[in-house]
Amino acid sequence: MKLPDAEPNPSLAGSLLFASPALRGAPFERSVILLSQHSAEDGAFGLILNQPTGQSVGDVLQDPAFRPLRHISVHQAGPVAEDQLFFAALWWDGPQGLRLAQQISAEEAMVQQKKSGTLVRAFIGYSGWSPGQLEEEIEQNTWIVAPTPPQLLGLSHERSLWYEALRSISPFHRLLAEAPVNPSAN
Predict the structure, then answer these.
(1) Which of 25, 88, 106, 125 could form a disulfide linkage to 102, CB 3.0–4.6 angstroms apart?
(2) What share of the chain is helix, strand, coil (3-state, %, to 5)?
(3) If you average pLDDT over residues 46-69, what whole number do you get?
(4) How far is CA 12 from CA 6, 39, 83, 103, 121, in A?
(5) CA dist., res. 139 & res. 137, Å (int)
(6) What is residue 151's predicted lDDT score, i.e. its pLDDT?
């Protein structure tokens, strides 16, 4: 009896990408990316979760209509379309896992932020890959792919997210996370 072939190009949508410790320089050094879209035909789209800009929506959008969103922190989500600010909502949906409503309007962000268990973020730019590009980078060990843990929404989405989330994957990943940034400086 022949077993069915495994899916040749499974989607990684909903997974986390951790930048390899060897990946140096902006914008991806020690980044954690939530992949929201991925297919062999269309490439991939994701958001860097752990690069806060130090600004809030209130610093960027002065219009009184955006006042309910003024406290939401703005994150740099990637090097593509860095002139665009958009909102995204994340929530955990039990068996469905982490859910993401991306590129939502300010009005929808105001509705989403009132929902219990929903995290609303503002992002500048995004991370994108052409078809086959991400797969090639994964083969070159540029990215560590991991399932999104249920506790992701409760973790700080500051620079420390890379360390905290990576070290929880396995003992090997804990060693990677705890290695010095520049081993030659030791």
Answers:
(1) 88
(2) 25, 35, 40
(3) 93
(4) 14, 8, 27, 19, 22
(5) 5
(6) 83
Q: At residue 175, what is the residue type?
A: L
Q: With contact defined as beta carbons under 8 Å apart, do 100 and 93 qualify?
A: no
Residue 40: other Cβ atoms inside 10 A: 14
Question: What's residue 4's pLDDT?
Answer: 45
Give residue-wise pLDDT tens across range 164-185. Answer: 999 999 999 999 898 877 666 5
Q: Round to whole Å and give the CA distance between 78 and 80.
A: 6
Residue with tokens 């991400």: 134
Cα torsion 179, 46, 92, 76 to 10°: value is: 70
Angstrom CA distances, 171 to 40, 141, 176, stand at 31, 18, 9
Residues 90 and 69: their CA atoms lie apart, in Å, by 15
pTM for the full predicted model? 0.88
Domains of the chain: 16-173 (3.40.1740.10)
Residue 29 neighbours by CB under 8 Å, 6+ apart? 19, 23
**Residue 109 structure tokens:** 């962000």
Kindly state the tokens that stand for 127. Answer: 């991370």
Token duo for residue 137: 């980078």
Q: Residue 182's pLDDT is what?
A: 66
